[in-house]
Specification:
This protein is α/β, with parallel strands linked by helices. It folds into 2 domains: about 5-230, Zn peptidases (Aminopeptidase), CATH 3.40.630; about 255-325, OB fold (Dihydrolipoamide Acetyltransferase, E2P), CATH 2.40.50.100. It is built from 7 helices and 18 strands. It has helices at about 15-20, 65-75, 90-95, 120-135, 165-170, 190-200, 215-230, and strands at about 10, 25-30, 35-45, 45-55, 80-85, 140-145, 150-160, 180-185, 205-210, 250, 255-260, 265-270, 275, 280-285, 295, 300-310, 315, 320-325. It is globular.
Length: about 325
């Protein structure tokens, strides 16, 4: 019998934390804005910190969702020293539509935090979600991927709004196999990890994968990162021999986003995770309707491509790439 098939049922997370026995799994279905959100609470053998792991903040990013399902099935409760909250699909309306944003208000849920409040669905739902994480969690892992139209290299975003929480988050990533770590401060654009960090909860966003489906390698990379964080937070002991000689990720504090200046068809692109220099071509596009070759050029001395548009069709002023500036 899997852990999933043996779970208990509670109406709220508060109830599950209060009543659920140790060494068990529960399913909790709460409602926000008339939409149900399903959480799973995994309680280990002994008390300890609470790790919150979620995916599907953007509805077309599937690698993290599969990772959450595997964690529910495979986390060893008999070795778990603490609790893990898992929410496989946070933004249910976006997931059901297969889109990055919720179709209810066409708002990116990871851009609503710390911004001028609006009374639309995503802003209200975001406030509801953040309150639950801050009330329950000692650490947040927010799993992402490139979605339908982006390829990303395996990298992390770490919230830097609270110095103590930032240091804890950075330390928790020490044994992950990432290409880069981007330090996001309070000026970052309305992301959930910054909202949570401002309340003193360490928070990281992990990127891996992208495309219309999911890839085994990207799911496994997310899995390994979560397990590495569990070990660093002392929720699990590490049964593996110590890994030595692993290259340290690039630490990025500045990024630059690039956008297309014409619509058209993408003809070639650089790879996510590759290093580019000033003047080098990142993407080549056959523009429409004039069918001219347009090149998106690296505008900085040296950078790593954190994410890049991977779909064939490109739209004028659409997102093209995010560069992590190497100084």
């Amino acid at each position: 019998m899997t852990q999933q098939s043996a779970h208990l049922h509670y109406s709220t997370l508060n109830e599950a934390f209060s009543l659920q026995p140790r060494h068990s799994v529960s399913r909790v279905e709460e409602y926000a804005e008339e939409h149900s959100v399903v959480f799973f609470l995994l309680k280990g053998m002994v008390e300890g910190p609470t790790l919150w792991v979620q995916a599907g903040l953007h509805g077309d990013e599937y690698d993290g969702i599969l990772t959450c399902l595997r964690l529910m099935e495979q986390l060893p409760l008999d070795r778990l020293r603490g609790d893990v909250v898992i929410c496989p699909i946070v933004n249910v309306s976006a997931y059901q539509a297969g889109t990055n944003e919720s179709p209810i208000d066409s708002v990116n849920l990871n851009r609503v935090f710390g911004q001028d409040r609006s009374n639309t669905y995503s802003y209200r739902f975001g406030a509801w979600l953040a309150q639950r994480i801050i009330a329950s969690a000692d650490f947040l892992v927010d799993l992402h991927g490139g979605g339908k139209s982006l390829a990303v290299c395996p990298f992390a975003m770490v919230a830097g709004d609270n110095r103590e929480a930032y240091n804890t988050a950075l330390d928790a990533l020490a044994d992950t196999d990432l290409t880069a770590v981007y330090i996001c401060d309070f000026q970052s654009k309305g992301m959930l990890i910054n909202e949570v960090c401002r309340s003193g909860v360490p928070a990281v966003l992990l990127e891996s994968g992208g495309g219309m489906s999911w890839r085994e390698a990207d799911v496994q990379r997310h899995e390994k990162s979560v397990y590495a964080i569990l070990v660093r937070l002392h929720l699990l002991e590490d049964p593996r021999p110590e890994q030595k000689g692993k290259p340290a990720p690039l630490v990025i504090s500045k990024i630059q986003e690039l956008r297309f200046d014409r619509s058209g068809l993408q003809r070639s692109q650089a790879q996510a995770g590759s290093i580019v220099h000033r003047g080098e071509t990142i993407i080549e596009v056959a523009s429409y309707p004039d069918y001219e070759t347009r090149k998106l050029i690296c505008p900085v001395d040296k950078a790593i491509i954190l994410s890049i548009h991977s779909a064939a069709q490109v739209i004028e002023n659409g997102y093209a790439a995010m560069l992590g500036i190497i100084e």
